[in-house]
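Give me the fold.
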Amino acid sequence: MKGFSALTEKPWLAMPDGSIAYDAPGGTPPAQIALRFLLMVISIAFVLIFVTFLTRSQYPDFQALAGEPWLPFNQSPRLWATTAVLVAASAAMHWAWHSVKTQRPDGVMLGISVGGFLALVFIMAQWTTWNYLANLGYGVSENPANAYFYLFTGLHALHLFGGVLAVVRVFIRIGQGCSIEQVAVAVKACTTYWHYLLALWLLLFFLLTRTPETYALIAAACGLG
């Protein structure tokens, strides 16, 4: 960690307070462009699934997990607990990025460590929730509503796991002696990705706890009713 502990010799942009602004002088770094493209693709995919969900929800055989709305899921503390974990993970990654800008190596390590760990906790919590609902008889093949629930939450967890792999790669680079400057773009990308997945989860949180009447109103407003 010798190289990482040393402050960068050629800061990209020195700020009046002595911190460093990590913005590429020649334009947006390729990694940031790739991330934006990835987030655009993920957004389009989820929008398409949202559209099919709203359309399918208007058929008579579309049944929620246990009635109106998807009880017991939206009444359970499980949803709130997992949401709190993801909020904390996003905050930890934001702290890591702030530590990059203020040249605090220990803060970077702490932020990405906590952020990555909490992401794994979130995924494990999702797994226990799936088992919990399956044991109650709400399997993926019981009705279309159940299938969409597992599809939404499963895809989200899969994308979050991909983010964990990105954090592991940052750890590897740090272990190889990279400086703050060399991992700055990667930390910023991870932070942006965590914030995006938090926003996506909050949208799923809203969608999965609505009543059938709300689905009907949204579908009608979108011309899908």
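The chain has a mean pLDDT of 81.
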